[in-house]
Design goal:
By secondary structure, this protein is α/β, with parallel strands linked by helices. The protein contains 7 helices and 7 strands; from the N terminus they run βαββαβαβαβααβα. It has a 7-stranded parallel beta sheet, sandwiched between helices. The radius of gyration is 18 Å and the shape is globular. The model has no long low-confidence stretch (mean pLDDT about 95).
């Protein structure tokens, strides 16, 4: 990796937002550490500025090993996450805890691990990727929305702590992105989460989603992360995609 270039560590790079963001930063000349639960060498272009590392954000020893191995970073992008869709009534609490372990506690653990080096250098940016579901909640994703809303509150408070040391914390809020694998990494967690009693309601929700005209792409998210990484103002939220931007404006979050 080139020592004169800045370095970004991005979690969840095997597909979707993380993969596109890694490609974007590589194309802009940055060193990229692409973290994946199961590393894949075939998804990113070969580059002397690229390192692919194994990382499980739910395991403290995995986080510690990565930070020990890769050296200093300038920006941490917490993107790794698990999607979940289903009726909350039948969602096991064990599944809820699993979602929070990755989407909430995993992000918090990664952030806590990077702060010492950032504070020592008085330089660094943490970007937490959440969801437009925090701007305008939608049905059948109560657990997922809760896990992301927790990170929004966490980041809002953390930004104040960071300011005292010249650091920055940002939120990137992607809109509805049908082209991404939102529920693909849920595995068997979604089994039975749309019982017969909810069938008609679920169909109406899916029908409304199929009629959405403005959606978010992975490229929209990568560009928003790039802007957040370079923004030196106090702007906290960076909605990604035309639908998310419209929601943020409607809610008064952005001009």
């Amino acid at each position: 990796m080139k020592t004169e270039a800045k370095t970004v560590l991005i979690t969840g790079c095997s597909s979707g937002y993380g993969l596109e963001t890694a490609k974007h930063f590589l194309a802009k000349g940055w060193n990229v550490v692409a973290a994946m639960r199961t590393p894949r060498e075939d998804v990113l272009p070969k580059s002397e500025r690229l390192r692919i590392v194994a990382l499980d954000v739910t395991r403290a020893e995995s986080i510690a090993a990565v930070f020990k191995d890769i050296g200093p970073v300038d920006v941490l992008v917490n993107n790794a996450g698990i999607g979940l869709m289903g009726a909350f009534e039948v969602t096991p609490m064990a599944t809820t805890r699993e979602i929070f372990e990755t989407n909430t506690f995993g992000m918090m653990a990664m952030t806590q691990a990077v702060i010492p080096q950032f504070r020592a250098r008085r330089s660094g940016v943490v970007i937490n990727v959440t969801s437009s579901a925090t701007l305008m909640p939608m049905p059948l994703v109560a657990v997922y929305t809760a896990s992301k809303t927790a990170i929004e509150g966490f980041t809002e408070s953390l930004a104040h702590e960071f300011e005292a040391f010249g650091l920055r914390a940002k939120l990137v809020e992607p809109g509805y992105a049908p082209s991404t694998r939102f529920t693909a990494n849920s595995g068997s967690r979604m089994d039975g989460l749309l019982p017969e009693a909810y069938a008609a309601y679920a169909q109406s929700v899916f029908a409304s989603l199929s009629q959405v005209s403005e959606v978010t792409t992975a490229a929209d998210v990568a560009e928003a992360v790039w802007r957040a990484a370079h923004d030196e103002s106090k702007q906290l939220r960076f909605p990604a995609g035309p639908d998310a931007i419209a929601m943020a404006r409607a809610g008064g979050w952005i001009p």
